Amino acid sequence: MTRYSAFAVAREALSYHTGWGRAWRAPEPKKRYDVIIVGAGGHGLATAYYLGRNFGITNVAILEKGWLGGGNTGRNTTIIRSNYLQDSSSAIFEKARSLYEGLSQDLNYNVMFSPRGCLMLAQTQHEVRGYQRTAHANALQGVETEWIGPERVKELVPIINIDGPRYPVLGALWQARAGTARHDAVAWGYARACSDMGMDIIQNCEVTGIRRDGGKVVGVSTTRGEIDCDKLGLVVAGHSGVLARMAGFRLPIESVALQALVSEPVKPCIDVVVMANTVHGYMSQSDKGELVIGGGTDAFNNYSQRGSFHHIEHTMAALIETFPIISRLKMLRQWGGIVDMTGDRSPILSKTPVENIFINCGWGTGGFKAIPGSGWAFAELMAKGQSPLAEEFSLDRFTEGRFIDESVAAGVAH
Ligand SMILES: Cc1cc2nc3c(=O)[nH]c(=O)nc-3n(C[C@H](O)[C@H](O)[C@H](O)COP(=O)(O)OP(=O)(O)OC[C@H]3O[C@@H](n4cnc5c(N)ncnc54)[C@H](O)[C@@H]3O)c2cc1C
């Protein structure tokens, strides 16, 4: 693999950039792998990467039914933060956030991590209490966040309307080291690094069945033939229930469409991420100048990866109340992704009832920010059978009543 650097760019400029190699190989599937990961989204690719980097396991295939990064990883609004309430959540999200800080160097791929800061607005007394509580919890967890008043919010975001007609801004939970990254680049960077370690990323390869010998996995059936493996990792977000059914167990997961949209590009007008959960909308500005706007989930379970008009209307109404300046902006695109929601709004990283099948799902509306931490922990779980970061997120918690309630931090917002 050619190392990307300023020298490489200069060298290639002399030959009209004809010398760049492919970022990842497109191999034919082998008959057998030590580990198969199903799903080449961010979490699947990061898992494979840390299996190789941290544990030297490289006889790995990542099977993807479409194109890599084409699921939720390529559809999200890229918010990265770690201001969660429960200790186990902030541990894994903070691990992820801190890995994001050095990810471009680690992968030798610019993931455009931008720690621009994130504000979660409090617009009711209930939210004030909730976010103040989170700020105290974060202080104990060693996660840097701060409760700030409305005047400071206005300083940070001059275009905001803090005296909204229905819900004035009463303050905010501010995480200065939160931010955004380029979602495609995160998938592409991990993919390139996995391919460089000799792993096979096999696109257009849908897993259609899971083969067992008694209680143990032996391989998968795919649209490109049967492939054997010792260990199988299911990392398919909204399709987790479908894959679990193939393996013969059920998951406490519901799949729903979550939507987002972007405006036409405008000059820089907002340099932080703002989330307004009461009116329900959130916004940041991309490097191209588009306002990246997050909407809500559909109120019914479905697998349709698309947006709908009533969501645009509700989301825009909420945001125009908070940012009247954007009222005449044209919206360019909208889309949807299928998110995997658990009842306690926390993920599942776990062994399963089938020996050597592991599952990583339930990241719901907020898993982009977790990709490096989730990959790190899940690789450890698959390699060693346990991981301190993943321990609390096992499937047992649903039968033991040990929920990790993150409905305030993760219920709707990202
Ligand atoms: C509109 C929207 C906005 C969001 N905003 C944010 C945000 O701002 N911040 C944040 O942290 N999170 C956000 N999220 C959530 C985040 O995108 C997801 O939690 C995260 O990307 C999940 O990554 P993944 O790798 O688990 O899943 P995915 O990226 O969906 O990857 C799973 C892959 O599995 C593949 N697959 C499925 N079935 C099979 C099969 N049978 N065989 C082979 N492959 C299969 C799919 O094709 C897919 O590529 C948002 C999500 C959406 C939809």
Automatic annotation (TrEMBL):
SUPFAM superfamilies (UniProt xref): FAD-linked reductases, C-terminal domain, FAD/NAD(P)-binding domain
Any GO BP: tetrahydrofolate metabolic process
InterPro entries, sorted: FAD-dep_OxRdtase, FAD/NAD-bd_sf, Rhodanese-like_dom, SoxB
Location of the protein in the cell: Cytoplasm
EC number: 1.5.3.24
Residue intervals of the Rhodanese domain: 35-79
Gene Ontology cellular-component terms listed: cytoplasm
Enzyme class: oxidoreductase
Signal sequence coordinates: none
PANTHER family: FAD-DEPENDENT OXIDOREDUCTASE DOMAIN-CONTAINING PROTEIN 1 (PTHR13847:SF287), SARCOSINE DEHYDROGENASE-RELATED (PTHR13847)
Family: Belongs to the SoxB family.
Name of protein: Sarcosine oxidase subunit beta
